[in-house]
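This protein record is not my work; I was only asked to verify it. Where you disagree with what is written, explain briefly why. This is what I was given:
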Amino acid sequence: MSWFGRLLFGSGDATMAASRTKLDRLIEENPVVLFGTSWCGYCRSSRRLLDSMNAKYLDVDLDEMDDIREVLREKSGQRTVPNIYIGGKHIGGNQELHDPKLQLPKLLKDVGALPSRI
């Protein structure tokens, strides 16, 4: 809830707690979570990279899940999208996802986000 909403309607502690629980569950239950928007070019770039690797990931559209946007900012310290978690760990955004130092193929394999070979 925005600062203006809290001013008008109160702190919404119960709502914020529910949103924190929802966010934590999304991150814990999925090997890769990309929080973004449909219109963001950096989000599309991150999706293209993950799709090109056939990675399994949860794509959370923050325009449709506005209730977790503020708690996501609090948890990650990041105000921009995409906001990406791999193996429960915040890795950052599109630039960090594309950074060779991340060793993305190995990281995705380690968390079980890549298809196994037959």
